[in-house]
Specification:
mainly alpha, three-stranded antiparallel sheet, binds zinc ion, DNA-binding
Length: about 450
DNA sequence: GAGTTTGAAACT
DNA sequence: CAGTTTCAAACTC
């Protein structure tokens, strides 16, 4: 795999992105509408593309991509409009200015000049416009470009930068997300069961239509009559409905019996029907922590399987737990989080730095900020991994080239189209970040 | 789908 | 309270 090292692409000069925040906002607004539709189309009804297919598809693109890179390089370098004697390229996390003749590469500091650092990162273009360019050139029906970018980020990033992938595949089944949402308690939804963390083999793709809330998982009780806490329906304070239980008494037909059972359970444990996951006092600012009230007592699962109620609820184990050899502590799951995203993104280091600076900031006028949480995923840069920056850049370059090929190439049009594309990319990043945080 | 493993709930 | 049994779900093959 030493050959994909390249990632070298050129950018026509500096690709603008100068002020005009109005345009940006407008673009963002517009994108919002379009993007939403795209998202629905993509997520709402799972596309027929299963993951294998997705991967294959991507590999295909990657391949084309490499070819394309060279084409682009030559075309741009050769006949390109009166470009300067250099172009920009990205390698890993760094932007280089490359002389067309000598080939000398000069690293560029992101902070030079007055421009925002983001500018340079965005400007630095790179490998193939999977989104637009490749499909076009290859005659592949121009698919929904909006979906493309993301896919490229998902699989592509992994393949290119070696380390564990950062991004989930877009079409990952979020199946069976949140369950247990006791309507009785206004405390809010209490996620309890999440079936899989990792993408499944896709043996049975497409099953639930809307995995989201509202669809409780049916019980399969045999001997409890669904009148003991063994039964999840009963434990959730719900009647059995569309369950597979035998001899179910957790229904209106057995209301008396049921009431008695509730009473009994309540005697045994007054908190029996309270949500097991309590919303702890908000730490920091807008971050509500959820913790298991009555800790788990795991002995063999290391709290790393759904046998563990803490793990199942995606909350860390606490001192309330009496688990043995727990691997679900706060730090454990934070490390996990890192691995998932990190993928050697230099930006992650900025994270730590930023956190430190912030915590030791001289501006201590804040009142109760004693225990401010780092929580990387709350920070924008957390999502600006190499892959993301790269993919975004690709999109911008692709957009630029497409626009360039247009008949009447107006400079203003160019700027607009690129900003527009940028807005779309941003929105996509946000959406996917949201999704990511939603399931993990 | 059958069989095993697991830990909460129930029971003593 | 601790130790044991029961139970349905999570998991494995
Ligand atoms: Zn039941
Ligand atoms: Zn039920
Ligand atoms: Zn039932
Ligand atoms: Zn546990
Ligand atoms: Zn625990
Ligand atoms: Zn634990």
């Amino acid at each position: 795999m030493g050959d994909h090292v390249v990632n070298e692409e050129l950018i026509e000069e500096e690709v603008i992105i100068e002020e005009q925040p109005e345009d940006v906002m407008a673009a963002l607004d517009q994108m919002e509408a379009e993007g939403a539709d795209a998202l629905l189309g993509e997520l709402g009804e799972d596309e027929d593309e299963d993951e294998d297919e997705l991967v294959r598809h991507h590999q295909q693109q990657q391949h084309h991509l490499q070819q394309q890179q060279q084409q682009v390089a030559s075309s741009s370098g050769g006949g390109g409009g009166g470009a300067a004697g250099h172009f920009y390229a990205i390698r890993g996390n760094q932007v280089f200015k490359i002389d067309r003749f000598s080939g000398a590469a000069t690293p560029i500091r992101a902070t030079t000049g007055s421009g925002a650092p983001l500018k340079l990162q965005v400007v630095g273009g790179d490998a193939g416009k999977q989104q637009v360019f490749v499909p076009q050139a290859q005659g592949i029906a121009a698919q929904d470009s909006k979906a493309q970018v993301f896919r490229s980020m998902g699989a592509g990033g992994a393949a290119q930068h070696g380390p564990p992938a950062g991004y989930r595949v877009v079409s990952q089944p979020i199946a069976s997300g949140l369950n247990r949402q006791p309507a009785a308690y206004a405390g809010g939804p209490v996620p309890t069961t999440v079936t899989f963390t990792a993408p499944k083999p896709a043996t049975k793709k497409r099953q639930q239509h809307h995995p989201m809330l509202g669809h409780r998982k049916p019980c399969n009780c045999n001997k409890s009559l669904c009148l003991k806490l063994y039964c999840e329906c009963f434990a959730n304070g719900e009647f059995c409905r569309d369950c597979n239980c035998k001899d179910c008494h957790n229904n209106l037909e057995h209301e008396n019996e049921r009431s008695k059972a509730i009473k009994t359970s309540l005697e045994r444990n007054p908190s029996a029907f309270k949500p097991k996951i309590d919303f702890m006092s908000a730490k920091g600012r807008s971050d509500v922590e959820r913790l298991h009230q009555k800790g788990c007592h795991c002995k063999k699962s290391n709290c790393l399987k759904n046998y563990c109620e803490c793990y199942e609820a995606k909350v860390p184990c606490t001192d309330r737990c009496k688990c043995c050899s727990c691997r679900n502590t706060e730090s454990d799951r934070q490390n996990k989080m890192r691995e998932k995203f990190n993928s050697a993104s230099g930006l992650l280091h900025l994270a730590a730095a930023a956190a430190d600076i912030r915590s030791s900031s001289p501006f201590s006028d804040d009142d109760s900020d004693v225990d401010e949480k780092p929580d990387p995923k709350a920070m924008p840069w957390f999502y600006m991994t190499d892959e993301v920056v790269e993919a975004t850049t690709l999109c911008l370059v692709a957009q630029a080239e497409e626009q360039e090929a247009a008949a009447n190439a107006d400079e203003l049009d160019m700027e607009r189209s690129i900003l527009r594309e940028f807005g779309r990319c941003l929105q996509q990043i946000i959406e996917n970040a949201a999704h990511m945080n939603q399931e993990q």
